[in-house]
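User: structure tokens for this one?
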Amino acid sequence: MKIITFYSYKGGVGRTMCLANIAVLLAKWGHKILMVDWDLEAPGLERYFVAENFNGKGQNTTTGIDLKIVKEKSGLIDLLTERKKDGWKEALISIPIPDAREPLHFISAGRRDDDYFKRVRDFNVETFYSKKKGGQYIENLRQSWWNAYDFILIDSRTGVSEINGISTIQMPNLIVLLFTATNQSFEGALDIAYRSTAAQQKLPYDRGKLLFLPILSRLESTTELELTNTWVNHFAENLTEIYKYWLPTLNSRVTPDEFLKMTKIPHVPYYTFGEKLAVIKDGTFDPSSMGYAYEGIASLIANKLERVEEFVEKREIYIGSSPQKSTDLIKQVKKHIGNQEIIPAIEALEVYFKSIDSRQDLNILIMLKARYKRLLEDFYTARMHRDEFYLELDKIMLEVLNRADTLDDLFLNTGRTLSQAIKPKIKNT
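Assistant:
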């Protein structure tokens, strides 16, 4: 499940905002991400990534995107019109993200010169497929992106159009269906789901089952609880066919209405002004925040809609122990150890255990931190022999790593003890 299209039948549901925030989270978790602005008639995904949205956040000083580069660089409509082999690589725009090892990669809707909208109007999907081998070009493009990235996030146009058919039929493995609490928004999104499923089955290319992740957006659930429950129950009853391929409802405590509530995106008036990233500005810890909602959706995507029961029953454990976060934590701790940064290594684990509310592990880490500080003091004041220091240091670090089973491979892969790994960094005294 690599290619994910974000679709909404009506505008104003926060589709582009959702994609942008989830892209940031996935990048922070260590994934290679490509974003594609497929909304040719109303492009603008890049505006969520201007530098001021990142100012003062993280360790990177150069972050964000230069809108002038977006206007000058070729994009999707240029790729579809010119059909150059590997032309997509020339269209890539790199967006540095604070505290992410890899920048986001972005392909805009197209070069914003005076002829942009003429190129969009002149592009004929039927001619593209029937006379210009467009189907094979899209398939080659899809395979190239598949090989190069962990996830490809596509921002599709609202409503129904021929250009949308490419992003909702030939491209995706998963469609994130965003809708608000209106019949127009919901029924339109549901109709696209059924149309896309039927159309993809007719493609002359191998595809697995096209899956859908319905997301109820802009929901005001704090003041209208009874009305919220009525609408959620109505939506859940009509989503049975959509959910049945991955949501374990049989002999399970998971119900569609409960799942909809857990994945809903709340309405926060502040974010109706401008283009801001909630996961950067507010973080992901407040259950009533948009960042918290985006984190849940991102974790479901990262885990390929697997172990959904755990997401519902133990959300923080599901997110905190998911593969991408564990891998990121392992690399972070290993880097700290290699640089003789024992305290930062312990503190990285503290953040992890706070996220899953493991107080026992947190208390042990606090004691280990104090023990390590005393060990350093004894060593640098010559009250302890070097060999004795390394032996005790190994004990401390092994206890730290034993707080999380996923970190065992830090030293199993190298066959070296931790003290051997950091010994060159210890100052001679």
